[in-house]
Amino acid sequence: MTETLAPQPWMTHPATLAVMAALEAAGGPGCARFVGGCVRNTLLRQKVDDIDIATVLTPDRTIAAVNKAGLKAVPTGVDHGTVTVVADGRPYEVTTLRRDVETDGRRAVVAFTTDWAEDAERRDFRLNALYCDAKGTLYDPTGGGLEDLRAGRIVFVGDAQTRIREDALRILRFFRFLAWYGKGEPDAAALAACQGLRDLTRNLSAERVSKELLKLLAAEDPRAAVRLMAQTGVLTAILPEAQGLARFERLVAIETEMLFTEDAELRLASLLPDDPAVGAAVAQRLRLSNAQRDRLVAALGTEPRLVSWMSPRQARQTIYRLGLQPFLDRVTLAWAASDRMAATTQWRALLPLGQSWPIPTFPLTGDEVAAAGVPRGPLMGAVMREVEAWWIDNDFIDDKLSIVERLKAVAQGMVY
Hints:
Layout: H1 9-12, H2 14-27, E1 32-35, H3 37-43, E2 52-55, H4 59-68, E3 72-77, E4 82-87, E5 90-96, E6 98-103, E7 108-112, H5 116-121, E8 131-132, E9 138-139, H6 145-151, H7 160-166, H8 169-181, H9 188-196, H10 206-217, H11 223-232, H12 234-238, H13 246-258, H14 264-270, H15 276-285, H16 290-299, H17 312-322, H18 324-337, H19 341-356, H20 366-371, H21 378-393, H22 400-415
Parallel strand pairs: 2-5
Antiparallel strand pairs: 1-2, 1-8, 3-4, 4-5, 6-7, 8-9
Helix pairs in contact: 2-4, 8-10, 8-11, 10-14, 13-14, 13-18, 14-16, 15-16, 17-18, 18-19, 21-22
């Protein structure tokens, strides 16, 4: 019996209907099918973010068809058959059916085809080789995609080693999909292939590795998948700085217990030693963004020293010096590294304190310091730092008169 998908909002959206109608006007009914994540996630009742479409139309015919329909075509990857079609501001990746002619583990030379089975054979996993036409009819060319999806099995299409040699990134994708969709014991052939060919990941671009790694770490509970990565040597191949999994595993447990949002960047930090230089080196090698690099470096800092028994006043002083996000990150990492119940309770209490305290702005201006008789220049900076240190030590006193009096005393001591 042929299985079908019930109409979905993303399938019946006017923009989606317009794209499919444009393609079918050029190639006939059934010339285009939804494929990959949108089909997989719909079957799993999960959110659909991107809509990919496979078609028998060649890229030039796709472009002509959507232009004729008044839609926008962007040739984002025509050499590999991909055209991004924009309808009502929404992007749709439309890719011609293809087969690999030549691969080197990083990129492939492809030939276009009209054979849906050939197109399915070049995809990574059977659960990603599921297609659905505009009417909702499902197609499973590998014969195992639907069963894998329901059983939580991540199985390569055809021979696992062949798929990995075509593109070594599929090793990381295997563990990423295992983290997001896997259940039970992993596929033995897939795991063995990933272990045996793990060194191929060293040839991948940093951007591709970091993107997959962060997606993997963003899964609700990636602990089992990361554990397998460590056991097979894949984690060491892509992240040789990883110091063990204990803190990482406790961090995921804390996020689950506290109902925190999954935080891939903090989870990455938890795998590394507390050394800002290591964080900076990892960020550079993985080509992370400047914001990601700065967060990683700050989270792995060791100064000022944080302790679980710090008083609210000490915590406020630390937040002011570090900033809120680094403080929260370092407290959470310290909590994850702690194995004492008393310390756990204390670390936990510091988080809401930080989140609820509005960080104040130092209330003195340069003009006010100048009015106290301090000339502009290095001396003014020294006076302001001295008064600010006093203000911090006095728990950010909110008394402008006292602050001005302190300014006068400091100015008198430094200027005269």
